[in-house]
Design brief:
It comes from Pseudomonas indica. This is Phospholipase_D-nuclease N-terminal. About 75% of the residues lie in helices and about 0% in strands. The protein is mostly helical. It has a domain of about 40 residues. Helix 1 packs antiparallel against helix 2, helix 1 packs across helix 3 and helix 2 crosses helix 3. The protein is elongated. The model has no long low-confidence stretch (mean pLDDT about 80).
Length: about 70
């Protein structure tokens, strides 16, 4: 039914795409739930939408951190 090896590449790249989509959606939810000002939230969401991979990476590196309870 499928060529040998052809389906595995599709499965691999599909899984990577789903992982990236999940990270992207998680980052957007974290922006919305953060305590940042509405302007900063809008800026972060715009960055995430316009530059998906770069935006998610930047959010992980530079986004607000949860305050520890220690």
């Amino acid at each position: 039914m499928f060529d040998e090896g052809g389906g595995s590449g599709l499965l691999f790249y599909g899984a990577i795409g789903l992982l990236l989509l999940a990270l992207h959606l998680w980052a957007i939810v974290q922006v919305v739930r953060s305590r940042s000002s509405p302007g900063m939230k809008a800026l972060w969401i715009a960055l995430l939408v316009l530059f998906p991979l770069l935006g998610v990476f930047n959010w992980f590196v530079m986004g607000p951190r949860a305050e520890s309870s220690t």
